[in-house]
Design a protein that fits this description.
mainly alpha, 282 residues, 10 helices, 3 domains, Four Helix Bundle (Hemerythrin (Met), subunit A)
Length: 282
């Protein structure tokens, strides 16, 4: 049984920290580094104290190994631009929590299942959030979609041609999987333009320089007093923030959809599976 007295404190600790991260993310579109790093500290401190009193240091060592594995995964997701910095650090912190077993084959099953669950639930959540944004900004969305549709009409035309070809091939070979691939092909340009339109029409905010914070994403490069600040994935640095504060114009900031709820949904679903279907992890 993986949800036992040994792991119960870690589970409660993770839930409290994930909920705290969600609240920060929803309110400020960022999660404090100190919040994520403190989860690492508390989790490893608990593992160490439990190991000392129990006389088995593998409980602590497992936390270190989990941290190192998720350190690699977190950086991979960050540099592939799947996660922003706060999300990547929360994932790294959860690496100290998730090694629930002394069997590392079981732990790898848990890691893989958690990543799959939070990516799937996070994707559904992001899609629903996007629809809400579209409804709230329908006029802006519709105008922008019309513009981007004309801009990417070749992508739509190419997708339609490939769809027809795959459909013909699927019918000729009587293969349903080929037909399904054709639908995926035709959906790609639609979803691509939808995502771009949501970003351009619903997620760009004009802020006064005093309200721009470290880590905010610039919508486009800025030129302030002859110095250029590039819009980058890393966001605004402290040094760039000082320069921005001297500007007398509104700053266009790109606000991402907070992804931390995906961690919460994924972790809860993982706990349910560990509790109800523990035989899978034997």
């Amino acid at each position: 049984m993986l949800i036992n007295n040994e792991n119960l404190f870690l589970i409660v600790l993770a839930l409290i920290w994930i909920i705290g991260a969600v609240l920060q993310d929803l309110r400020r579109r960022e999660v404090d580094n100190l919040w994520n790093f403190s989860l690492i500290g508390f989790a490893l401190a608990y593992r160490l104290s439990f190991s000392v009193f129990g006389g088995n240091y593998w409980f602590f060592i497992n936390g270190i190994i989990g941290f190192l594995i998720f350190l690699i995964l977190g950086n991979l997701f960050y540099y592939l631009r799947v996660f922003a910095g706060g999300d990547a650090k929360l994932l790294i912190a959860l690496g100290t929590i998730l090694p629930f077993s002394y069997n590392w084959i079981v732990n790898f099953k848990i890691f893989g299942l958690f990543i799959l669950l939070f990516l799937l639930t996070g994707s559904v959540y992001v899609l629903l959030w996007s629809f809400v944004l579209v409804i709230r900004n329908w006029n802006k969305f519709f105008k922008k979609y019309s513009i981007l549709f004309k801009k990417y009409w070749k992508m739509f035309f190419g997708g339609l041609i490939f769809f027809i070809l795959w459909l013909i091939i699927g019918i000729v070979f009587n293969d349903l999987s080929l037909v399904l691939i054709g639908f995926v092909i035709i959906l790609f340009p639609i979803l691509f333009v939808f995502a771009r339109t949501v970003e351009e029409s619903c997620m760009i905010k004009a802020l006064s320089p005093s309200k721009v914070t470290e880590g905010d994403w610039l919508y486009r490069d800025l030129l302030i007093r002859g110095k250029r600040i590039k819009a980058s994935w890393d966001g605004v640095s402290k040094k760039e923030l000082e320069l921005i504060s001297k500007s007398n114009k509104k700053i266009l900031i790109k606000q991402g959809i907070p992804f931390t709820p995906g961690f919460l949904f994924g972790f809860i679903f993982l706990l349910v599976l560990l509790w109800k279907f523990s035989f899978i992890f034997n």
